Amino acid sequence: MRLPFLPGTKNQTEAQLLERCRAGDLEAFDDLMARHQNRVFSLCLWLLRDHDAASDAAQETFIRAFRAIGNFRGECAVSTWLHRIAVNVAGDSATRRKRAAKPLSELETDDSPAPEAVAPLRENPLETLARNERQQAVRKALDELSEHHRTVLVLFDIQGHSYEDIAQVLELPIGTVKSRLNRARAALRERLETCRELFET
User: Fold this and answer.
1) What is the rounded CA–CA span in Å between residue 32 and residue 17?
2) Higher model confidence: residue 108 or residue 14?
């Protein structure tokens, strides 16, 4: 799935693009967005569990980024800065919606599955079934976690951010990030206990 942003293919460093963006160059900002839009959308989708809401949140993330880019001085990576904005936008969106969230398991009906949901080539049907059942169980368990626990799990275990990056995204001490991640994993394991047989080999 790609958001309706202009693609960017220019061979410039992010530092060069940032300088052009600060000067009001929209083409440079399109190029910057193209480098990060899929991961920002993926983060919003995991946090909001709704395709349309995630698409809106991703676009709002880049709108806020464009408005604030003059104040961004590179204290962290561009991806970290954008993910911090995305987490805040997704939180605002969840608060505004004030309705029952769509379970993560329903994302499997989307026409653009996440990369991890695509079956490997030559996988036999039983392996495919078992893998899909494990994914559905994990997504359902994630959906039952608190927003804080789900966010730190998505950032660390799904998107692969370091403790340092997550501390910057969430504006928390690294020690707090580590303890929150440990509690989130414990909560996830507890919710997966009823289907432990799916994960036993």
Assistant:
1) 7
2) 14
CB 143 within 8 A of CB 104: yes
Q: DSSP letter string over 125-176?
A: HHHHHHHHHHHHHHHHHHHTS-HHHHHHHIIIIIS---HHHHHHHHT--HHH
Distance CA 3, CA 63 (A): 13
Helix (H, G, I), strand (E, B) or coil at 84: helix
What tokens appear for 17 in the block?
Answer: 């693009």
CA 96 remoteness from chain centre: 19
- Predicted structure pTM score: 0.73
pLDDT band at 97 (very low <50, low <70, confident <90, very high): low
190, pLDDT greater than 80: yes
Residue pair 22/62 in contact (Cβ under 8 Å)? The answer is no
Whole-number Å distance between alpha carbons of 89 and 167: 17
The average confidence (pLDDT) of the chain is 80
Contact (Cβ atoms closer than 8 angstroms) between residue 119 and residue 128:
yes
What angle is formed at CA 117 by the lines to CA 116 and CA 120, rounded to 5 degrees? 80
pLDDT of residue 103: 53
Position 2 scores a pLDDT of 45
User: Residue 102 in contact with residue 49, Cβ under 8 Å?
Assistant: yes
Please give the pLDDT value at position 111: 42
Residue 74: count of CB within 10 angstroms of its CB: 10
